[in-house]
Amino acid sequence: MKRIVIITVAVLLALSGTQAFAKSEQMGNAEVDASLVWASAPASGFDSTIGLCIGGGTMVDKDIQARVDLTFLTWSESFFGADLDYSRTPITVSGRYYVPMEQNDLKVFVQGGLELSFDKVEVGNFFFPGEKTSESDVRLGITPGAGLDFAIAPQLSIVADVRWHIITDSYFTLQAGVAYHF
After folding, report:
1. Among 164, 127, 166, 133, which Cα is nearest to 39's?
2. Contact 66, 15 (CB under 8 A)
3. Which residues contact 46 (CB under 8 A, 6 or more apart)?
4. pLDDT of residue 2
5. pLDDT of residue 79
6. Distances 74 to 21, 58, 96, 155 between C-alpha atoms, Å
7. pTM
8. Cα angle vertex 144, ends 139, 148, to 5°?
9. Contact 173/52 with Cβ under 8 angstroms?
10. For position 80, what pLDDT does the model report?
């Protein structure tokens, strides 16, 4: 967990440095957001799950946002009496392109990014209940997606997007949440 926090802080600091290169009319155009996430099964035998995503971004050009997202997902199943927990904590560094539109309160975007996923699988021991074996791995993937950002107040918007996580045990996510712009 400490490693995830350090990486997230480093990336956010790097992204905030890109703000200096933005056009003057874009200065201060940043956001933080939080979303509920529905995620499809990453492997056969699992059901979908609900998780949480927190993220933030800053405009680096008129229609381009650099951003970082941190998502928390856990799938649980029972196979032949043994419990299996699969947790995935991806950090996604991406770029978002807002499609130019006449309407200011609705923004449509496409995005793409690199995902660094911290995965952990825990398997309960069938013969010794309460005992678990675990394995952790770090995986790299890509994450294309698209979504909407609908302004409900000068500094608040509702965001929704869909992403395809192309990685070992690929999966889809649907996200909906609230963004605060500053």
Report:
1. 164
2. yes
3. 75, 77, 86
4. 54
5. 75
6. 38, 29, 26, 32
7. 0.81
8. 130
9. no
10. 74
Q: What is the pLDDT of residue 95?
A: 98
Alpha-carbon distance 64 to 46, whole Å? 36
Q: What integer pLDDT is reported at residue 104 of this predicted model?
A: 83
- Rg of the chain, C-alpha, whole Å: 18
Q: Can you spell out the DSSP letters for 107-166? A: EEEEEEEEEEEEEEEEEE-SSSTT-EEEEEEEEEEE--EEEEEEEEETTEEEEEEEEEEB
Structure tokens at 122: 């825990």
Task: Pick out the chain residues at pLDDT < 50.
Answer: 5-6, 9-10, 12-28
Tokens of 143: 């994450």
Q: What token pair was written down for 51?
A: 């998780």
What 8-state DSSP symbol labels residue 93?
E
Q: In DSSP terms, which residues pair with 139 in a beta bridge?
A: 117
CA atoms within 13 A on the CB side of 175: 30
Q: What is the longest distance spanned by two Cα atoms in the chain?
A: 65
